[in-house]
Request: fold
Amino acid sequence: MSAPTLRAPRPTSPARAALRAGVQRGAVELRQSFTNGGDLVSHLLWPVLMLIALFFLREREFAASGLGLGTLALPGILGMNAAMGMVSMSQILTAEREDGTLLRAKATPNGMRSYLTGKVIAVAGGLVADLAILLVPGMLLVDGLATDRPGGWLTLAWVLVLGLVATLPIGAVLGSLFPSARSQGLIQLPVLGMIAISGVFYPVTSLPGWLQAIAQVTPVYWLGLGMRSALLPGAAAEVEIGDSWRHWETAGVLGAWAVLGLLVAPVVLRRMARRESGSRVAERRERALQRVG
Reply:
């Protein structure tokens, strides 16, 4: 009787190995962000500030609609927080490009792919946790939310996933464009301007028509609209553009941003990684030390 033939294990492809390493790295970074005191404070600070704003808005109504401003604002704030993931991603990439972390990732086989996978998981996971920290007490703080609709939670899920896919690649692109963490801070100004006209704290229909048009180009507006459609009663659509939640338009615009980001981000990141070198990292550190001195 012949001995059984032993088959050699199938080799793991480089792409799959990089993906597995990135998932593990992202899970570790996400866990550390909730066990490190400073990171934990950052997770809690923004939701707490937003809950304070909702507290003062809860008794105010929008025009004659009968809808409370706090009720309208809560879903919009959720959308805004999700969109802010692009700022978090850009800040992380810029800072770790400056301290040499990106250079070390570049030096290992498939290191950039593993690095970016880990960052996406860490940032997206942190954002989802932050949204839960805001949403759960927020539902107790304001009245009028339609949280008993099963379809609403499904809408919340697809809008959130599509919104993260649309915004995180944009953050990666922005993080590749700025040479230092100090210059990266300039991105805060246009982002704050985008949030101001996105209808997060006040229905966008109260703004001039030209500002409404600009708002509808940004992913922040559509994230907020999608969140409102998921958590507000159907009658609340009367204060939106066209008296409609415009789900197809939401999916279309967020999908377009996602495709654009996924096409542009790899090209920009590869070009940025090719330019990285030990001398560039040392030069940036020297400039940073001179500013501190």
In short: The mean pLDDT is 81. Residues 16-292 form one domain. The chain is about 70% helix and 0% strand.
